[in-house]
Design a protein that fits this description.
Blueprint: H1 2-34, E1 50-53, H2 72-78, E2 94-98, E3 132-136, H3 146-152, E4 157-162, H4 164-177, E5 184-188, H5 191-196, E6 201-205, E7 211-215, E8 221-225, E9 232-236, E10 241-247, E11 252-255, E12 268-275, H6 277-280, E13 288-291, E14 301-305, E15 308-313, H7 325-341, E16 348-352, H8 385-407, E17 411-415, H9 418-422, H10 460-471
Parallel strand pairs: 4-10, 4-13, 12-14, 13-16, 16-17
Antiparallel strand pairs: 1-5, 2-3, 5-7, 6-7, 8-9, 9-10, 11-12, 14-15
């Protein structure tokens, strides 16, 4: 009897030890899993998951500089109170704060950057301008999530409609969406758990019992371009998603007489009451659109309404009434916005405000330059008078249209990127629009570009704002 009790006691102790060891193992496994929890949806059970990682070094051609130090002003903004979920977030009032993680892509990982905006390739020596992100003052703005964006946009179509800034922007968006998505590989015993993950995955058999789920990296495939490569379309085939840029610098019908270098041979003929068919014919087939225009209206032009000349801008050699670019700008925007607000479109339409240039000491053709290397704070720079006129007209015409658009069920949104772009005089190619402009000891005698944006560069933050507006629609 004594031996039996002793054996039972030993057996009980062994069971208790095994139970304690199992508990420690479970706790350790749980801690290990939760250390990666940001990468997975919360509804996937930890028992279904095994994970391995693949290391990946930055491209050799891209030297990562020391991130900029955080000035006290930015630390103060970063620690300020954030809005509660019930308050409305103003995405367009904020500051540029240091972003130590740097750009989402480089000129080595993206194949659609035009040479004129490829500042790294062209030899721009400073890289601090790459290490900032836009930070609204009173609310959170997550960085653009390409995996989530592609998943949300399955079977959808986007078009950016406007001038060369729209082309600059579409290249930024394509670059971010085509970047390597993740270094993680996940394995599960069931296909269903793999499908629950955010992102697009290839399924492969790893062994007899487990499927391996690899985040799929997919480059954009060009599916269309016009003769001059001004209007172009790209597809992400696995998502059946297309992104296009539609060249329409006035948004209304225009006959433009310029050569490849932008030299005019005659005045532009602008029909203020007729919409440009290049975007009009696609309008109802597009799910998301971003309309924008601006500085093209400063060019010499003859204005038409009802096929009759009504005036002009800067046409001294013609016996035509000078009406000014502001007249044409207001009329054209009104025609476009009136069409949009009365349409039956059921997607999302953004109207983007024009973005300022940062020429100092002159303009494009008169020796202007932009040599700054860091962002400015609010109050340190003011819009030029010309940009104030454009912006006032944009805001006034949008406000007239948006209420009636809402009443008609049209989702029209203001994408007011002007204020945040104003604070980034450091983000333009400048002399580095051209390859190695100082290679012979002096600058090439070619114009600086203080209008378009380096890629990568500040324009990438525009996509953070757009995604947040889509997510919180």
């Amino acid at each position: 009897m004594g031996e039996s009790k002793s054996w039972s006691l030993r057996k009980c102790n062994q069971l208790m030890l095994k139970l304690a060891a199992s508990t420690v193992a479970v706790i350790f496994a749980f801690r290990l899993f939760t250390s990666f929890s940001d990468d997975f949806p919360s509804d996937i059970p930890s028992s279904d998951l095994r994970m391995s990682t693949i290391s990946q070094s930055p491209p050799a051609a891209f030297v990562v500089p020391v991130p900029p130090q955080v000035p006290p002003a930015y630390e103060a903004h970063a620690s300020s109170e954030r809005m509660t979920p019930n308050e409305k977030c103003d995405l367009f009032t904020g500051d540029w704060i240091p972003n130590p993680s740097g750009p989402a892509y480089t000129n080595e990982t993206c194949h659609v950057i035009e040479d004129h905006q490829n500042c790294m390739k062209n030899g721009r020596p400073d890289t601090g301008y790459l290490y900032w992100r836009w930070n609204p003052r009173n609310c959170e703005l997550p960085l653009f999530n390409p995996e989530r964006f592609l998943e949300m946009m399955q079977n959808k179509s986007w078009a950016l409609i406007g001038d060369s800034i729209s082309r600059n922007h579409v290249q930024s968006l394509i670059c971010i969406l085509s970047k390597p998505l993740s270094n993680a590989i996940f394995t599960f015993p069931h296909k269903k758990t793999c499908q629950k993950l955010e992102g697009h995955y290839d399924l492969e058999m790893q062994d007899l019992f487990f499927l391996q789920c690899k985040l799929k990296v997919e480059k954009a495939v060009e599916v269309y371009h016009d003769v001059e490569y001004k209007s172009r379309s790209w597809s992400f085939p696995s998502y059946n998603m297309t992104i296009s840029v539609v060249w329409s610098p006035f948004l209304v019908q225009a006959a433009i007489f310029e050569d490849a270098n932008g030299v005019s041979t005659s005045e532009i003929e602008l029909h203020l009451d007729k919409l440009d068919k290049k975007w009009l014919d696609q309008y109802m087939n597009l799910d998301y659109m971003i309309f924008s225009t601006g500085k093209w209206f400063l060019k010499t032009a003859i204005y038409y309404e009802n096929n009759e000349i009504v005036g002009c801008h800067y046409c001294h050699k013609r016996n035509v009434t000078e009406l000014g670019f502001d007249f044409a700008y207001r009329k054209s925007l009104r025609s476009v916005l009136n069409f949009i607000r009365t349409s039956s479109h059921k997607g999302i339409i953004f109207f983007r405000t024009s973005t300022p240039d940062h020429f100092e000491g002159g303009e494009w053709s008169s020796g202007g330059s932009c040599n700054r290397t860091s962002p400015l704070n609010e109050g340190e720079i003011e819009l030029k008078d010309l940009h104030k006129i454009l912006r006032r007209i944009e805001i006034e015409e949008f406000e007239k249209a948006v209420t009636k658009a809402s009443e008609n069920g049209v989702n029209l949104k203001l994408l007011d990127l002007n204020p945040l772009s104003l604070l980034r005089p450091d983000g333009h190619p400048g002399a580095y629009r051209w390859p190695n402009p100082f290679s012979h000891g002096k600058e090439l005698q070619k114009p600086n570009d203080c209008l378009h944006w380096c890629l990568p560069g500040p324009i990438d933050s525009w996509n953070d704002v757009i995604m947040q507006m889509v997510v919180s629609r």
